[in-house]
Design goal:
By secondary structure, the protein is α/β, with parallel strands linked by helices. It is built from 8 helices and 10 strands. The strands form 3 sheets. A 4-stranded mixed beta sheet has the order 4-2-5-10. The chain is globular and about 55 Å long. The two termini are about 15 Å apart.
Length: about 280
């Protein structure tokens, strides 16, 4: 049994949030640079180069890489050998977010869904927890902007629609979104489970490095085919009809009921921000 005071989690969230707000992930930067190299359209290539330049300036000047500094999404994979002490886990996460968004001068974007009154400190965070083996806590922090989140969709397919139906849902979601989610996008997909779990899987898929393949062959094939069809749409960077509409497609899956085939498609804009740490 390993004891961890939740203040450690608060401080780690604080550090991760400050980094995430001003930095794209290394895999995102690599994907954008590659897209620049292969882009055949002049306008789309100019837009891609601008995105890369923006990421460099944000990092060097320690400034937000996007004006939408997002809602804080936190995934905690907690080892069952961990004993948490101190303030509540939820309070610790929110305190870390609150401090970071204040000290980093990040935009506070969280509000009441009915009154639209801003909470003033970008809390509460969206917190997902999993109990796993071991005596460590893996923390994933993602600031999720809503220009892309608004373009996401959840489908409840018939089982007979199968793999082709899954791919069609992924491509349709990106096609309907068009230029609104600031492409090139990163597409997270959840397959199976229930109405709610497949949505979580889609979100978790966005925490993977762009370009990594699901270890299961059939799922990796869906990722590859969906990405190919999406880029044939020629929406391109910022809608300039370029060659790269999506930087990547990542799918996660779970067993589901014999009567259903849930599919969630979570769209992330080109501004992929994600930090991971292990306590």
């Amino acid at each position: 049994m390993r004891k961890i005071n939740t203040v450690e989690i608060e401080n780690k969230i604080y550090e991760m949030a400050l980094r995430a707000g001003v930095n794209l992930t290394p895999s995102c930067i690599e994907a954008l640079n590659f897209a620049c190299e292969v882009e055949s359209g002049e306008a789309a290539r100019f837009a891609l180069e601008t995105l890369v330049d923006n990421s460099v300036i944000a990092h060097e000047e320690n400034m937000p890489v996007c004006q939408d500094t997002g809602i804080a999404v936190v995934i905690l994979e907690i080892g069952q050998g961990v004993f948490l002490e101190g303030k509540s886990l939820t309070a610790a996460v929110n305190d870390g977010v609150r401090r970071a968004y204040s000290d980093g001068y990040f935009r506070k974007s969280v509000c009441d869904p009915i009154t639209r009154e801003n909470t003033g400190d970008n809390t509460p965070a969206v917190i997902h927890t999993e109990i796993v083996d071991g005596e460590n806590i893996k923390i994933t922090f993602m600031p999720k902007g809503f220009g892309s989140e608004n373009m996401s969709k959840l489908y409840m397919l018939k089982p007979a629609q199968g793999v082709e139906g899954i791919i069609n849902c992924i491509v349709e979601t990106v096609k309907l979104a068009g230029s609104r989610p600031c492409p090139p996008v990163y597409v997270g997909v959840g397959i199976g489970g229930t109405f709610d779990t497949c949505a979580y899987l889609a979100k978790k898929a966005l925490s993977r490095d762009i370009g990594t393949a699901n270890p299961r062959k059939e799922i990796a094939e869906i990722e590859c085919e969906a990405l190919s069809r999406i880029n044939k749409l020629k929406i391109g960077c910022q809608g300039f009809h370029g060659d790269t509409t999506a930087l990547g497609v990542s799918c996660e899956y779970a067993p589901t009921h014999i009567a259903g085939l849930p599919v969630a498609v979570n769209i992330q804009c080109h501004c992929v921000r994600c930090e991971k740490e292990v306590l």
